[in-house]
Amino acid sequence: MTHSHGIAAPVDAPPLASSQAVHRQFRFDLLREDASTWARRGRIATSRGTIETPVFMPVGTQATVKTLHPDEVRATGAEIILANTYHLMLRPGVNILRDAGGLHRFMHWDGPILTDSGGFQVFSLSDQNTVTEHGVTFASHIDGSRWTMTPENVVELQLAFGSDIMMQLDHVLGLPAERAAIQDATERSSRWLERAIAALAEQQMAGSASVLFGIQQGGMEPDLRREHARRLAGMDVAGCAVGGLSVGEPKPVMHEMLEASTPYLPRERPRYLMGVGSPEDLWHGVARGIDMFDCVLPTRLARNAGMFTPDGRITISNASWRHEHRPVDETCDCRACTQFTAAYLHHLFRANEILGLRLASEHNLRFLARVMIDIRHAIEDGTFAGKAAAFLDRYRPVGGQAPAPLPSRSAASSREGDQE
Known about the structure:
This protein is an alpha/beta fold. It is 40% helix and 18% strand. The protein contains 16 helices and 17 strands.
C-alpha cells in the first residue's frame, strides 16, 4: 500500500484529498497530515454546518445531552452531537419524531446529528436476541416488547429522524468469542452494509442530505480487521467507522487493532472510532489516524462527581476538595472553572444539588473540546508528537498506568510494505 503525504500543507491550502456525497451536500477535506504519526487535520461540510476534525461528539442518546440545554452544549464548543436509533425507536418512537418535524426540531439542535444504528445497544441491553441473515429480533429493555431491526428499517428510521450521518446496522458480537464466530459476524456486517446502501438509494427523498457510514469489525483479530477495512474501503459510503473496540480490552490491544485498521481505510473519507472518549485515548486515537470520536464517558463521569483536569481525573465529592477555594482547573474557561471554586462544586455534590451535575458536565465536555482544539492546532503547527507526549506524560489515567508509546508513521509504512 502506498500513501502520498504532502505533510506541510497549511489548512487554507487546497486539500490533500477530498470526498463528496449526496450531490455535494456532504464533503470531507483532508487538510494536513502529521509527519511522524498518522494524525490528520480535516474538515467535514454538511448542510447543517461545518465540523472541524479531529472532533469529539457529545452523546445525546435519547435526544438530550443529559442535564444540559442544547445552547449549553453548543457553548462547550460542540459542532455535532450523537443520538441513538435503538433508544429513539423505542421512546418516543419514530411517529412522534416524524410529526415533530424531525429530530433536530424535536430537541432544538440546529447543528449536525450523527445517529448510531443501535446495533451495540441491541446486543448489550436486550435479552433473548435472535440473529438471522434478515436482521436481529430482540426484547426491549424498557417493557420486554419484541422488536426487529434490519439493515433496511434502520436506514428508514434514521431518514425519518432527519439524521445528517447515519450508521449501518452491524452484527456486534460479545467478546471473547471464537474466531469463526467473529469472522461470521464481520462478514454479515458487510452483507448488511450492502443492503443498507441499497435501501438508502431506494428510500432517500429529494432534498435529503443524510449520508451513510459503514462500520468495520473484526474483533481482536488483526488480519480480520485489515481484511474488513479493505472491503469497507471499496463500498459506497461517506465515511468509515471502527467498531467493536473500547469494550473492555486492554489499551495496547485497542491501539494494535487501530494500527491494523486505519492504514487500509480510505484516506479521503472521515474515520470514526466509536465509543471512545477518555482524554488520553483521544490523543492515541488521533495518532492512529482517527478523525471522529464519541462517548458517554464525560457526562456519565460528571454525574458521578468525576471531572477531568490536566493532571488526570478527580472525584470532586472527595473530602480533599472541601477547602479548595480555587478552580478545579485554572486553565479552563468553562463556567464551572471561571465562576465557581472546587470547594463550591464539592459542596453541591455532597448536598445532592443538581447544579453540580450540570456544571461538571459542562466542564468535562469543554475539557474534551479544548483537547481537540489543541490537537488540531498541533497538527497544523507540525508539533503533534511533542504535544501528545507532553499531555500524556502529565495526564494520569485512573489506575496510574504509564503512558503508552505513540505509533510511528515510518514503522507502520514499513509493516504495510511487508504485508503486501
